[in-house]
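Now for a specimen:

…
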Amino acid sequence: MAERVAERLRGALGPVGFEVHAFKVGWYNAVLQPAFHLPYPDDTLAFVVLSTPSMFDKALKPFLSKERVKLVRDPVDQCISHHLSHVKEQFPEQKVDVIFDYEMLPSRKPKFLAQTAAHVAGAAYYYQRKDVKLDPWGKKKIYGVCIHPKYGGWFAIRGLLLFPDIQVLFLQQPAPVDCVSSQEKRLELLEQFNFHWQDGRYRDIIPVKERYSEEQRAYFATPPGDRLRLLGLANQAQ
């Protein structure tokens, strides 16, 4: 059942630059404190959705151009919402819950921890402080970061698709690819991500097969109010 659902999701989202990776809610809840648990039975089928570098050209630009959309929030968020909502229509016989990466609980906690979800689904390895043996940071707060075996840091975790009516007792959990395996590289990765994230060097901690285009990097580096002008779409925004 999980593979059939995955095939339909890949068929809908793959051509527009997304990846989907299956997991059981219990895998996710098992590694987190109860405050962050997803409120579903352990065997509930879920998928983490990633955007790859090609999403910009395959999904975002066509969406902005075609929709002539009234931008009420971040265009990327609206584009993701559009595509994941469309996916729900592919499953008229199933209940599908969508949680987006930017959604918050009333407590201001995120509705899900994106990097943990990517790790337990085997999509990307979540490197954290505990993965470095000789820790040089003392009392500093050090944030972890996911690295994709193909895209390095050139990707984003966009949301979850949950199927409350599908229970998968025998789904095998894949291990994420430990692509930053040396202690030196892990230290370098966390150092760059925490203290030099603006220059993006952490994204290339491993050789990557694809990265964001110059246009895409320029888009995300541009203040939000000027981004449509950069793409030649400013006159289409309401």
The two ends are 43 Å apart (CA to CA). Residues 1-124+144-175+211-231 form one domain. Residues 93 and 165 are 10 Å apart (CA to CA).
